[in-house]
Amino acid sequence: MMESRMDISQLFPEGFNAMLALEGAMRNSSIDKKLYKLIKIRASQINGCAYCINMHTREARAAGETEQRIYCLNAWGEAPFYTDQERAALALTESVTLLASTHVPDDVYATATAVFTKEEVAIITMAIVVINAWNRIVVTSRTLPD
Taking the alpha carbons of 45, 131, 41, 138 in that order, is the dihedral positive or negative? Predict the structure, then answer.
């Protein structure tokens, strides 16, 4: 059975509180809340973060997201259930999350800027960065899903 390694909120509260502030900035931003939840789920799937997948799928359901779209999210490219904006954001999510191997290709960025304003792309990029940071904290500390 896996055990939690540490509680970063207790060991480094200043850093943890800074992460909470970033999360608060994202929640208060103009990003579509359902899209933000899809970004969180998809990045968490890629990063293998069970705690975050568990949390964000529950949040998505509570916000009205369908089971079908949640279940097919890891195959969004082959599923007809996502809008052009969601597809662009999910492609960007995958590229930023897998940065070492993708380096965020020009075509992915161009697709995002074709359906979002530059400000929206900036906000989506920050959303991706924030969930990736949370995933790294949670996976490293082995925070277990409840």
Answer: positive
103: region left, alpha or beta (phi > 0 left; psi from -120 to 50 alpha): left
Inter-residue contact 88 to 115 (CB < 8 Å): yes
Count CB atoms within 10 A of the CB of residue 16: 15
For the stretch 117-129, pLDDT in tens is: 999 999 999 999 9
Asked whether residue 137 carries a pLDDT value surpassing 90, the answer given is yes
Query: Which residues touch 130 (CB under 8 Å, ≥6 apart)?
Result: 19, 22, 23, 26
Question: Tokens 């949390």 — which residue?
Answer: 55
> Is pLDDT of 19 > 80?
yes
